[in-house]
């Protein structure tokens, strides 16, 4: 509930601070005294757009601050979600600087207007004749019905599953789209995949084949040089092998004379052993050198296949070809396994849909049971408010479609006159009738759910006499469950308040300002008497005012 409102440098208000209490609070004042300024300031602190025209003194900043007791509003999760400190008495502050810049704070933490507006919807409902058009909104109509049907927990469950269903359907669409695109390329991708699979590519084979082909293509040079190398090595007269044998023999003769010669003998012997091994390999290589045209052709064909595949896939190596092969494998496998994926996703959707159907059926049944109760309650209240012939025709119509709040559509029709045709509220109800219907709706809601503070802005316009007494009684009954603030021009309603505030203008040093004060018991009598008879208060008016207050 709103516990305090402080306003500084706003419109015609210099400085104003007023405390509010629970129950029914009344605000009265002459036309033009500034009741709309109060609502404007309250709207500003709750997130309305601001501009420099709001400043009384354009050289000084405007500050509007509201203290709100939120202990009973179950808002801890909301505060945590928007990263705000939760306080049982929350302070909301809005500032407009002379530069035109606007700032908003909740418990001294800066917030955006989006967060402020979301918080506003949970704290204060400012209701005027303009807001009665909300009655024609399908969501609002469902909210009324679901409040009586006690559908809150069912709707939470339903909405969780509804979001899951929406996600699964989105995933199914992605799979179907991917499959469609993949199917269009499947034959071509399968051909490319099969071609690479049959090629049985190995990472290192290309280099080995190129080396082998190079050897075969130069077989004559290889044979000639091997033969000549062998001749140089084993020639009996000048061959390296024979010369090394002679060298080993000569050095061995002097090896025993010193360690130096012994070391030389060992080294020359090692060279001789290595040379003997080289000669053996040269002989083997020379014997094995031969040209096989069939083998050369096979190698050449294999290399050409690899070159062609690399060119076809715009790569430069077998490693890259194998990456292409894996990618094609995935694409082919995706198409071949897509039907299984689709089937699995459809099974998931079917399972969630069954859960949704089950909850939606419970929601629908509860609505069907609640409709007669809602109809009876509204018609009873409207009868008290001077609309004895008011009738409602409300139907929850089950469909096969999934909506965010169930599977029903709602037909919410109204007739104000006996024997009259039912029609949509916005088409068949007048402004005054809509105001009384909205008051009745709020009364019903206040008995079934925790409503935020409600401010009725001259909802009693166009009514008088006994109807005004009934409106006052309804507001009084509502105030036992919630804080109600009523801006009114009717003495019958003003007298029902547990506290009474007056908006008034005064002129100080040639400057007009708007003020608000809480009236004492004596001041209330005078204010209500003035509402009854005007500025010239008669004894009869005073007596009547006392009677109303008693």
TrEMBL record:
Record Pfam families: SMC_N
Record's keyword annotation contains Lipid biosynthesis: no
GO biological process: DNA recombination; DNA repair; SOS response
Domain spans labelled RecF/RecN/SMC N-terminal: 2-507
GO cellular component, one term: bacterial nucleoid
InterPro entries referenced in this protein's UniProt entry, alphabetically: DNA_recomb/repair_RecN, P-loop_NTPase, RecF/RecN/SMC_N
Keyword DNA repair: yes
Keywords: ATP-binding, Coiled coil, DNA damage, DNA repair, Nucleotide-binding
Coiled-coil regions listed: 318-355
Top-level taxon of the source organism: Bacteria
Residues annotated as transmembrane: none
Any one Gene Ontology molecular-function term assigned to this protein's record: ATP binding
Family: Belongs to the RecN family.
Purpose of the protein: May be involved in recombinational repair of damaged DNA.
Name assigned to this protein: DNA repair protein RecN
Protein's organism: Polaribacter irgensii 23-P
């Amino acid at each position: 509930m709103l516990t305090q409102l402080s306003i500084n440098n706003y419109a015609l208000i210099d400085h104003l601070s007023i405390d509010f209490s629970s129950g029914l609070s009344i605000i009265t004042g002459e036309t033009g005294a500034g009741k709309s300024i109060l609502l404007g300031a309250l709207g500003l602190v709750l997130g309305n757009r601001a501009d420099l025209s709001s400043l009384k003194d354009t050289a000084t900043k405007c500050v509007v601050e509201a203290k709100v007791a939120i202990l009973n509003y179950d808002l801890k999760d909301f505060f945590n979600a928007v990263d705000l400190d939760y306080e049982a008495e929350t302070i909301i502050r809005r500032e407009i600087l002379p530069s035109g810049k606007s700032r908003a704070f909740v418990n001294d933490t800066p917030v955006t207007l989006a967060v402020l507006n979301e918080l506003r919807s949970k704290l204060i409902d400012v209701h005027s004749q303009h807001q009665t058009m909300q009655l024609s909104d399908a969501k609002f109509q469902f909210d009324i019905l679901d409040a009586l049907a006690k559908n809150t927990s069912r709707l939470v469950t339903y909405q969780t599953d509804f979001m899951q269903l929406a996600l699964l359907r989105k995933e199914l669409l992605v799979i179907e789209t991917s499959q469609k695109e993949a199917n269009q390329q499947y034959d071509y991708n399968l051909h490319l995949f099969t071609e690479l699979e049959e090629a049985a590519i190995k990472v290192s084979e290309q280099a080995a084949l190129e080396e082998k082909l190079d050897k075969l293509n130069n077989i004559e040079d290889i044979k000639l040089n091997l033969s000549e190398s062998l001749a140089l090595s084993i020639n009996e007269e000048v061959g390296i092998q024979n010369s090394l044998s002679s060298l080993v023999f000569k050095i061995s003769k002097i090896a025993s004379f010193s360690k130096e010669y012994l070391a030389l003998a060992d080294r020359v012997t090692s060279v001789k052993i290595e040379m003997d091994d080289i000669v053996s390999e040269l002989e083997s290589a020379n014997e094995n050198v031969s040209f096989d045209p069939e083998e050369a052709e096979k190698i050449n064909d294999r290399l050409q296949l690899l070159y062609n595949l690399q060119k076809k896939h715009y790569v430069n190596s077998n490693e890259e070809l194998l990456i292409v092969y894996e990618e094609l494998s995935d694409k082919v496998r995706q198409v071949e396994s897509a039907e299984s994926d689709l089937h699995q996703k459809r099974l998931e959707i079917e399972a969630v849909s069954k859960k949704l159907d089950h909850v939606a059926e419970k929601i629908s049944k509860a609505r069907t049971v609640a409709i007669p109760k809602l109809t009876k309650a509204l018609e009873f209240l409207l009868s008290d408010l001077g609309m004895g012939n008011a009738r409602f025709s409300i139907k929850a119509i089950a469909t096969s479609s999934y909506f965010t709040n169930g599977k029903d559509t709602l037909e919410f029709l109204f007739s104000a006159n006996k024997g009259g045709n039912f029609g949509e509220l916005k088409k068949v109800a007048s402004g005054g009738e809509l105001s009384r219907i909205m008051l009745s709706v709020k009364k019903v809601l206040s008995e079934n759910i925790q409503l935020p503070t409600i401010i009725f802005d001259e909802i009693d316009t166009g009514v008088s006499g006994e109807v005004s007494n009934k409106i006052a009684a309804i507001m009084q009954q509502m105030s036992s469950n919630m804080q109600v603030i009523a801006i009114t021009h009717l003495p019958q309603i003003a007298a029902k308040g547990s506290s009474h505030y007056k908006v008034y203008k005064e002129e100080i040093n040639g400057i007009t300002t708007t003020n608000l004060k809480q009236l004492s018991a004596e001041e209330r009598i005078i204010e209500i008497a003035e509402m009854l008879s005007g500025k010239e208060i008669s004894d009869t008016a005073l007596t009547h005012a006392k009677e109303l207050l008693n």
